[in-house]
Amino acid sequence: MTVDGTPRNPAEAGALLELRGLTATLDSPAGTAHLLRGVSFTVERGKTLGVVGESGSGKSMMIKALLGLTPAKAVVGGESIFDGVALHELKPEARRRMLGRRVGVVFQDPMTSLNPVRTIESQMVEAVRYHKGMGKGDARQLAMSLLDQVGIPRAADRLRDYPHQFSGGMRQRVMIAMALTCSPDLLIADEATTALDVTIQKGILDLLSELQRDLGMAMILVSHDLSIVAGRTDDVVVMYGGRVVDRRATQELFVPPMHPYTRALSLAIPRLSMPSHTRLMALTGAPPSVYDAVMSPEEADARDMVRWESIGIHNELERSRHSTAQRAPLTERPEAEDERRG
Amino acid sequence: MSQQPPPTGATSAPQDASRRRSAFSLTRAIQLPGQQPRRRSRHTGVPWLAVIWLSVLVLAAITADWIPGLPSYEEKIGGFAQPPDLSLGGILGTDGVGRSNLSRIIYGARISLTIAVVSTMIGLTIGVVVGMLGGYYRRAAESVSNVIANTLSALPPLLLLLALVSAMGATLPTITIALGIVISDLYIRMTKGAVISAISREYILAARALGARDLRLMVREVMPNLIPVLGSVVPMAMAIMIIVEGSLSFLGFGIPAPTPSWGGMIAAGADIMRTQPVVILGPVITLFLTVFSFNSLGDYLASRADGREGKL
């Protein structure tokens, strides 16, 4: 079901978005920065994909490259196909126009995601009118119902408020409502809960899951926190140094053998079962530089071995690589095939 | 049974007495249970005297032709530098040729305010367009806007104005346009800075993700953010315009006689100010109060903008 009540076609199934070898480079006085080094994954209709990785791993850049929001000087390569349309063949502006009507985005910082000098009504009504071509009155009604849908109390009154009159969590709810104005096929939450405290985080994540389920959207949940995506996604992609180092179904995420970096992330999650004063494992050193030369995944893995060894992970790499190579792509998982047939 | 906190706003007499006793003590800063927190305004109060003065001035300038008992600015109502009397026209005395000082101040306000408002609009238009393009597109556009702003600020403003007025004649449009061009470098720099700051915010990225084009982003997303920044500068710039126009008139390059202007009145009265100070007292005080009022208004708007930014 879409936000305006139109049922989605249940017959539609399969890949909604497919990235194949997405790259992004930026020339700077310090040299060529390789921001993305060949990112590939698939998002299926109605499913949730988690994208995890530490700061600087390329998560947000991947979203920007997908949406055509990279800096003008950045060179984006690879293929991105959305609902059968080859986005990489479109100019950035045409790509934004096309995606703006079908993809909703919730950005990280709710404090700066809304224009501080415009009322919520002005911002939402404009978005609704832009996407739906509605009259002002109808657009206001829809904006009000969207605010109501995302749990903003007294929506009619709050429409006249400015962003600074909302708390961080409420602003993020407003952002989600704005992202829903286009009845998106795909909702991207780019670190949507990072700037919020833990209790508010849960509320926002629950809301996103609920909306995703009710509206039948696909969703990309980007986070640096593996525990956030672990319980709320169907598939997970792990990014490191601008590339995808691991991708698997969420239910298999912690099933060995896993990529050393995924293992390192899992070791950094605090658990209640741990004895008190347990030190979490932390990788030493720094992530690879964006200025490092282009290298094959094998060469990159060999380079990164030093970091994995710092927390005692040293014998899984080969098994992991073997396993990843043997693993069928996510779209061709047997269970996915079964679901499609079903 | 749990104790209920006292209802807000309904304080008992002993509480009031206690609050009065501690009014000047250090404990005043401590918030008592049930007491409403003191709301301290981050900005200064509205400068009502400035608002009233400017309102009166604008109203008088607009309705000058219909004020009963007010003579025309060209009409001789008495002798040379006559002291003030109780008639409306003579309340501020007469000038060197026997014309009403009050009338010339009020009609002079038309010229001064027109120049201040129109030249500010011209400067603002140039500044916003050039600064917006430079700040939004950066690279070559920014270089061009920098060159324009640097060129304008490198030229001595008064000399530039004198040259323009000498070449094109001291007419109202010439002076207004020249002043607008001279002040525009200020607006170019301020606009560019504000635009660069605004476009790095995520709401611009969010609007672009929704499919908004450049023009729409500039007008709908970035432009409203310029209002707090420029709104506080505009009144102060208007004050500068009034002073510069007065300086031009004082130097003999302003609006030619008999059209009155405050600077021209001060220049004309300068020769006789030792013997008849009242001749220049009226225009000097009017100029001072108007400039002071514009600056106060600018300060108030700047403090409002600061308060608003602080909440972001």
Write a structural description:
The complex is a heterodimer of chains A (342) and B (312). The model of chain A is unreliable at 1-11 and 325-342 (pLDDT under 50). Chain A has 342 residues and is an alpha/beta fold. Chain A has a six-stranded mixed sheet with strand order 6-7-8-3-9-10. Chain A has a four-stranded antiparallel sheet with strand order 2-1-4-5, with helices on one face. Helices cover 36% and strands 21% of the residues of chain A. The two termini of chain A are 20 Å apart. Chain B contains ten helices and no strands. Chain B has helices at residues 13-21, 48-62, 101-137, 139-154, 157-168, 172-199, 202-209, 214-250, 262-270, 278-310. The radius of gyration of chain B is 26 Å and the shape is elongated. Chain A binds chain B through residues 64, 67, 69, 93, 96-101, 103, 105, 107-109, 111-118, 126-127, 130-131, 163-164, 175, 178, 182, and chain B through 201-203, 205-213, 220-221, 224-225, 227-228, 308, 311-312.
Strand arrangement across the biggest beta sheet of chain A? 6-7-8-3-9-10
Number of domains of chain A: 1
- Could you give a short account of the major beta sheet of chain B? none
Let me know the average pLDDT of chain A: 80
Supply the helix-strand structural class of chain A.
alpha/beta
> Biggest interface between protein chains, with counts per chain?
A-B, 32 and 21 residues
Shape of chain A: globular
CATH homology superfamily name of the domain at 115-306 in chain B: MetI-like
Helix fraction of chain A, binned, reads 25-40%
Q: N-to-C SSE series of chain B?
A: HHHHHHHHHH
CATH fold label of chain A: Rossmann fold
